[in-house]
């Protein structure tokens, strides 16, 4: 029998690294630390080996379709599927960054939303019965939904919104940011927040779509890790990376037939209402 397998995206540092550390201790199967940069990824694996842990490594750049396809093929050939996927990889421009907003919007949506979606498109079909998928979002995403005009928010929150319609909304945000009309059109002035709003809404759609899926007991949820001391937060924050990993790991290890949460957004292991 092939062993069970878990994959964590963007896990050469920060919260992703801590998720791998926790899964190595608690998950009964192979745990893949993945990184866009092979050298940084392999160094991170060595660091965990020094702690007596045994993660495996695979390259993955979530903005590169070829890289995603390579991982998909590898998992299919070696394991015949996937048991746990944690979509953790993201970027965030610093507040002081002078990169024009249009460019920030383009690259942030491309990585945090579209990259996560592309990984899901490739790997969700591989998820085995009782599999768990965790999309690491952010409280910034729920705040972005709150900051939208009511007309704009109602589009994101529509119960029958499809994945294709959500993709169009995010494309519209990027286009509006490029001609400076995003706030006029009811979007918040945050590329990161909007990307994470997209991830939260996407998670709900993916869970709804699973209702028509013959595979048994697959749970998919989004979460906020909290305000965590990592490079992304310039090491500000109330939580260590290991503490930030707790809610994602809790969702990744929900016991068989737990039934819920499903399609929710969680913070500190509790459901956050956003609709
Ligand atoms: N820190 C917080 O306070 C906080 C709060 C709310 C939510 N979050 C979320 O928690 C998650 C982890 O954040 P963090 O604080 O640990 O950030 P981090 O320290 O900046 O780590 C981000 C990780 O994502 C990787 N990454 C970026 N772009 C990638 C790509 N295209 N393909 C593959 N990997 C990529 C980075 O790789 P490189 O080393 O190659 O750049 C790095 O390993 C993110 O989803 C973030 O939005 C964090």
From TrEMBL:
One family name in Pfam for this protein: adh_short
UniProt KW keywords: NADP, Oxidoreductase
UniProt-listed InterPro entries: CBR1-like, NAD(P)-bd_dom_sf, Sc_DH/Rdtase_CS, SDR_fam
Statement: the UniProt record of this protein carries the keyword Disulfide bond: no
Keyword NADP in record: yes
Enzyme Commission number: 1.1.1.184
Membership in a protein family: Belongs to the short-chain dehydrogenases/reductases (SDR) family.
Name of this protein: carbonyl reductase (NADPH)
Name of the gene encoding the protein in the UniProt record: LOC100367363
